[in-house]
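Example 3.
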Amino acid sequence: MGLPTSALARIADYSVAILAVVAVTAFGLIFRVQFGLASIALLYLLPVLLTATRGGIGTSLATAGGAALAYNFFMLPPRFTLRVFGYDNIVSLIVLFAVAIVTSRLASGLKAREGAAVERARAGVQAAALASALTAQATLADADRTGLAFLADHFGTVILIALADADRGRPQFSSLDLAALAWSAHNGDATGHASAVMAAADWSFVPMARGAEGDVLALARPEDGSSRHPAEIERLQTLAALFGQARDRLKLDAERQARQRLEELDALRGTLLASLAHDFRTPLTLLRSGIEAWRATPPGEESIAGVLGQVHRIEHMLADLIGLARIEGGAVDVAREPVDLIDIVAAALDDSDTGDSARQILTDVAIDLPLVDADPVLLRHMLVNLLDNAAHYGGPHIRVSARSAGDVILLSVGDDGPGIARGEESAIFDRFVRFAVGDRVGGTGLGLAIVQGFAKAMGADVTAANRANGPGAEFTIALPIAVAAGERG
Amino acid sequence: MSRILIVDDEPAILKLVAAVLARAGYEPIAAGDVRAALTAIDAGAIDAAILDLGLADRDGLELVAAIRLRSTMPILILSARDATDEKIAALDLGADDYVTKPFDSDELLARLRSALRRAGLQVAQDGVLRHGPIAVDRARHHVTLGDVSVSLTRREFSVLAMLVEAGGRILTHQHILRGVWGAAHDNDIEYLRVVIRALRLKLEHDPARPSLIRNEPGIGYRLTHGNG
């Protein structure tokens, strides 16, 4: 079994002291005549100084005692006795002791200051490391994870306890721990083990905002049951304050971003209202004048078709608005099931505006494609919007196709219109984005935003690109393949 | 002249549907709430009912169940576009079909006509169910498409027989699954999808563009009079 390092150091100190005293004595015995007693007496100060500067008042006093004894025994007449003649010998003994005490005091003071400086430097290095780790984090959750991992590396088990939870019981805390926790959270003092407040607790609690009410870090006692040094708690407190500041900054950032999002949403609502007023007014005006004309002349087939067309337009706008409201309100219920794209394509073609025109729609969906995992109702709505979009902006041909690509099925709607301007591929999904192609545009500009919103709700990806071969845009929904659950029997 | 009950708590819709029915030669009977509807049905001689599900005094679904307790008359549901669950519930309670609001009067009349036709249909003397060119002989477990005999697996036969028996009425996925696979499998939609694919391959003119067996996404399957 090995001795602890501090015991080893003490043994080393004593060995040095004994060796030094022996050396001075040997020197004195040899050169006693040449140097004289006074010089030899001074030489005995050396071992005392030596041990005293190594710190430890005990060793230096022992050395002083040993030196005095050796001097008395070997040097002072009558030699080889411990009898002391004269006051000058008593004085030299006192001087040796005094030197031992003063020097060791000075040395251990210096040593303590040096220790504190080292501790401060270490705390500084740790604080800098923590600060730089925390500044790299963009979210509160990331910062918490990083900060706690850092502290766990240096201190052991550390728990972050929110102020709101400070008064709630936890299985790992005794009632004294809980009292210390509550005190720390409400008063901003370090409490518990190795602190000045409720030191009998098992855990140490360090406030994240010193002197103020706030969140608290709880530090478990070392697993081997040993005690922590108060300096360690002091160091943790510095780090906790730093951690707390970083968290405050991130919380403020998050709040500011949320406010900004709300403002943007408000601005968007304003645009939406203005745009809606215009969008609804046009078909309503046409509807009204169309119907009013029936007073004078009985409605002809063409006039009825015109009026019904406007009604249809309003219906579509309404469906878009309801879709948007559901996306915005987070009220999109997603009911995923294995879906056959053949069914969805057939149903969407029934629903879309594309059927009644001279447009040619080509479908290319193989009968043996795997089933996809999707919400069939949302997917149909998305496909209808993509088909309507192609009808509004594309040319005379629309192509609906599906193909397998790894673990997804890509469902695409391509047109042969002017395509998408470079760099607009993702902006095209923004609300109200409409492209100037004259009166043919009939929607609210929400159709593609709804496609994207539903895709997001369903966990699918939707992308826009220009077709690889030939002009025109192509919109693609990537749908996960449904996990096959083969039927038995 | 068929007497058609219309139940809707919106007077304007009630009046509109009554006018559409009258013009098409039906005798409309309007009811503004569940009580009036049940009184009219108990008075008898109603041939079909058109219900709005969002009624003021009681849920329209309860009315579907109440009518089914009294009669086998065709029931048509008027329902909002996104109310998938509501449609499924109504169909499972015994409604025959639904029309999505806002609706087309032509579509409403077409659905009503086919519902009435189905109700008047008797199973043929020989026990063979027919739908367009398809004939299903349950007793002999035999299916023909036109003159050609079609060989089907047990599951395929059962699904097709259910669809043909429904005569164009939409059957919910769960209803078919329960009927063919049993109650334990009413969520295993992929079983049904696979069987429908097989049936399309054997019966449809173009299986990738089905015109005979059609799906209502999220709701169920029905047979249509396609060219398949």
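Chain B has a mean pLDDT of 87. The longest helix of chain B spans residues 105-120.
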